[in-house]
């Protein structure tokens, strides 16, 4: 198996976008590739971060594939060759296993890629473009990714402060009303995006700008004027502030004045310097969490993630090893009868003397080692 | 097999001389090395250009050998390690083959090394320090060196002007009287040394210095005063001049006056500017050869030698390959019965499934390849 990979590590978006074929173009590409007769099986994967072509074929297949990628992308072939990684045999297998498990992703451990690969493989399979080798390889790789997801913390561990804060908020209650102060800032934007991915969260976002386009078009979100922020605080279950303001956006006095009940409230301050007056923690039912908490959590999670990557690599090594043995054995099977006949017709001495006379030392020694294993390990 | 080599390529003479053990010390060294129990076989070679230790042993043997070399040489072990090449297994075999054939020598193709290795091996063998592996290896290596000597021009091809001139002179007649003018100069010294290595040559050497120590002590040599040179020319069969003088050392007029017969005479001029007046070639029976002739010959020989080195490497590759197969087969033989039993007790499928379950993919694939070879190549 070969793999040609153009990805965010070796190519910028201007190269990658030319290779981000639509589904119809991908189908056309695979069909033309197979029709060239040098390629026997192929799968193409196009995401915004990578275009990868996995294929099996004869010694001309690599050239065929590169030329066709050049034709379809309009990238001159020599330039394309500078922007791709090329993997062959065991290394191609390893690469697929790493990609599908999220180790090669920009955000390590993200699991969107597994779904994308499943779609890519299914499309090729439905077109009849896959055979024994790619079927085995993709199925093993996807099973391995699921095993990694289950057995390690790789895809469960976030290292982003905004994501961690989002998770904290979403788990605060069954349904959470959140007021986000500073929703158009750097952290605020990511936080709002994350909050909206939780179905139990609805967001009121304040902005100093009148038209907060970046958040306005989303569902489950209400835009409020910054000056009116206190009027939303009583009904909110959670208030997050992440502005670049040098002053408090939430003071004890104004808050106390505006809230009517002592229901459980979660206040999160993601700003440096702090946006929320620390005294608000004295208010009954109110829990205040600062940015330090999330930064420490992110740091711990980063260590956990590095450990998880190591565990994932171990799992990949084991699973890909089983796959390689299966494939090798599959391709050995047609030789079985002939080998058995030769072993029954000739004494072992005769066989070895013939090998000794005909083979160079490296091959002869491998054969002796193989037979020695029969004596020792069976 | 291991080889530890300290040679002119990695160490200067100050290091090498500390490792140039006398024969008695070599014997003592080998005995102590074997008595340490980690080394099972060993041979030591000490020449002025290299000290090399070849040995077989367990995983501690390398440390034992290095420490003992350090003790015997008085070179601190860390320093010694910086000054040695270490070869193991196939690479150690290849190194011995290259050394014994003269490819690793300072003067490529010199064959003194073959005799030195034969002595080193014989000494170790007589002490009972060698076993199957070193006996096979040294005997093959020496046989290979002889084959190279016979089948290539490697050791027959000189690239030194002085040596080529010396050979020309020695082959001029059955017994040759030579007058060397300028015997203490750079070329003269080498020439005289070469001439004295031919048994049929006697030398009269002139020198401007009164005491020409560098040549005086040799047999077959008479020292003459430069001013008297013409008085020796009639009896000389050959006259060589190699001085740095800006004037002719041999003029037509003076020569003509001093020679009485027109017997065959060989005059060789190795000086730049020329020492011998070109007109002497007009004298009947006299053949004059200039330095250009030898320089051209040396250049041709150098090309021939480079070709010969390539041929020698080919022969080494073939011969060492045979050796490696012999050794591998020798060490396989004790396993033969057990392998045969396993092959008769189990079906090939059973054997392969067991291997598949127990071995990592690389080993399993090697075994499949070995059995596939039985089907295809027997």
Structure description:
Two copies of one chain form a homodimer. The first copy, chain A, is an alpha/beta fold. The first copy, chain A, has three domains: 2-151, Beta Polymerase, domain 2; 161-298, 3-Layer(aba) Sandwich (Rossmann fold); 332-370, no CATH class. Chain A is built from 16 helices and ten strands. Chain A has helices spanning 13-18, 23-35, 61-73, 77-82, 90-100, 112-126, 132-151, 161-170, 186-196, 213-216, 229-233, 252-258, 291-332, 336-345, 348-358, 361-377, and strands spanning 2-7, 39-46, 50-57, 85-88, 176-181, 201-207, 221-225, 238-241, 265-269, 286-290. A six-stranded parallel sheet of chain A has the order 7-6-5-8-9-10. Chain A has a four-stranded antiparallel sheet with strand order 2-3-1-4, with helices on both faces. The longest helix of chain A has 42 residues, at 291-332. The mean pLDDT of chain A is 91. Chain A binds chain B through residues 321-322, 324-325, 328-329, 332, 335-336, 338-343, 346, 348-349, 351-352, 354-356, 358-361, 363-378, and chain B through 321-322, 324-325, 328-329, 332, 335-336, 338-343, 346, 348-349, 351-352, 354-356, 358-361, 363-378.
């Amino acid at each position: 198996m070969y793999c040609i990979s153009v990805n965010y590590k070796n190519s910028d978006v201007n190269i990658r976008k030319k290779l981000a074929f639509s589904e119809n173009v991908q189908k056309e590409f695979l069909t033309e590739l197979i029709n060239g007769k040098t390629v026997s099986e192929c799968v193409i994967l196009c995401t915004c971060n990578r275009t990868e072509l996995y294929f099996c074929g004869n010694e001309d297949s690599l050239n065929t594939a590169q030329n066709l990628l050049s034709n379809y992308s309009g990238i001159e072939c020599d330039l394309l060759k500078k922007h791709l990684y090329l993997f062959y045999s065991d290394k191609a297998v390893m690469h697929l296993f790493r990609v599908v498990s999220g180790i090669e992703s920009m955000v390590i451990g993200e699991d969107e890629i597994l779904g994308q690969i499943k779609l890519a493989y299914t499309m090729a399979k439905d077109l009849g473009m896959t055979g024994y080798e790619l079927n085995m390889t993709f199925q093993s790789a996807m099973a391995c990714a699921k095993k990694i997801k289950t057995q390690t913390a790789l895809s469960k561990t976030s290292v982003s402060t905004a994501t961690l804060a989002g998770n904290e908020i979403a788990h605060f209650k069954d349904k959470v009303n959140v007021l986000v102060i500073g929703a158009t800032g750097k952290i605020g934007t990511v936080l709002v995006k994350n909050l909206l991915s939780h179905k139990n969260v609805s967001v009121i976002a304040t902005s100093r700008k009148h038209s907060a386009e970046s958040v306005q078009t989303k569902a489950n979100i209400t835009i409020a004027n910054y000056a009116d922020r206190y009027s939303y605080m009583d009904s909110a279950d959670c208030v997050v502030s992440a502005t670049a303001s040098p002053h408090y956006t939430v003071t004890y006095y104004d808050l106390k004045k505006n809230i009517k009940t002592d229901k459980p409230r979660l206040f999160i301050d993601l700003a440096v310097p702090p946006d929320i007056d620390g005294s608000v923690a004295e208010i009954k039912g109110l829990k205040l969490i600062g940015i330090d908490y999330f930064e420490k959590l992110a740091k711990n999670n980063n260590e956990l993630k590095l450990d998880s990557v190591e565990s994932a690599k171990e799992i990949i090594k084991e699973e890909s090893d089983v796959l390689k043995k299966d494939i090798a054995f599959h391709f050995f099977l047609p030789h079985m009868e002939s080998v058995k006949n030769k072993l029954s017709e000739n004494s072992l001495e005769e066989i070895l003397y013939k090998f000794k006379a005909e083979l160079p030392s490296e091959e002869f020694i491998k054969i002796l080692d193989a037979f020695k294993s029969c004596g020792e390990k069976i």
